[in-house]
Amino acid sequence: MTNNSSAKGRIVVGVDGSPCSILALQRARPIADALGWGIDAVAAWQYPSYLGAGIAGELRPDDDARKFLDDAIEAAFGSEEPADIKKVVTHGYPSQILIEASAEAEMLVVGSRGHGGFTGLLLGSVSAQCTEHAHCPVLVVHSRDHH
């Protein structure tokens, strides 16, 4: 994700298909519209650590990530996908990928809780890492039922 000085600003949104990440996409939209920025919807995937090399070669987590990214964008915006949204699917730890992307973004938006983790926590590990290490302002979006 490169951004030069003549390009318009970008908001990076972390998307894992969870309700909070769909809400993060929705919250980023009016900010992007008001400021004339685009949105980079970023889905990062990682092979599960418990899989052996033989099994991992048969899986297609990149295809799964593309599918849940498409589904999340449709859930957030309906059939009218914003023209200035850029879909990014990449391999790596989500917090690391989002922190790296934040270096060239005007803002990073993440949900407070994604898939997995422990119920009842106010911040998930990805959102906590992003708020600590991002290179731009971070908006953490809580759902109404985050408890």
Secondary structure topology:
Layout: E1 10-14, H1 19-35, E2 38-45, H2 53-56, H3 61-77, E3 85-91, H4 94-102, E4 107-111, H5 125-133, E5 138-141
Parallel strand pairs: 1-2, 1-4, 2-3, 4-5
Helix pairs in contact: 1-3, 4-5
Key attributes of the depicted protein:
147 residues, 5 helices, 20% strand, five-stranded parallel β-sheet, alpha/beta, single chain
The run of helices and strands is EHEHHEHEHE
Taking pLDDT < 50 over at least 5 consecutive residues as the criterion, the unreliable ranges are 1-6, 116-123
> What structural class is derived from the secondary structure elements?
alpha/beta
The largest sheet, given as strand count, sense and whether it forms a barrel, is: 5 strands, parallel
Strand order of the biggest β-sheet: 3-2-1-4-5
Average residue pLDDT: 83
Total count of strands = 5
Question: Which range best describes the helical content: under 10%, 10-25%, 25-40%, 40-55%, 55-70% or over 70%?
Answer: 25-40%
Number of helices: 5
| Molecular shape | globular
Compute the separation of the termini in Å: 34 Å
Query: Oligomeric form of this entry?
Result: single chain
What amount of the residues lies in strands? 15-25%
The Rg value, from CA coordinates, equals 15 Å
How would you describe what is shown here?
By secondary structure, the chain is of the alpha/beta class. Helices cover 38% and strands 20% of the residues. The protein has helices at residues 19-35, 53-56, 61-77, 94-102, 125-133, and strands at 10-14, 38-45, 85-91, 107-111, 138-141. A 5-stranded parallel sheet has the order 3-2-1-4-5, with helices on both faces. Helix 1 packs across helix 3 and helix 4 (94-102) runs parallel beside helix 5.
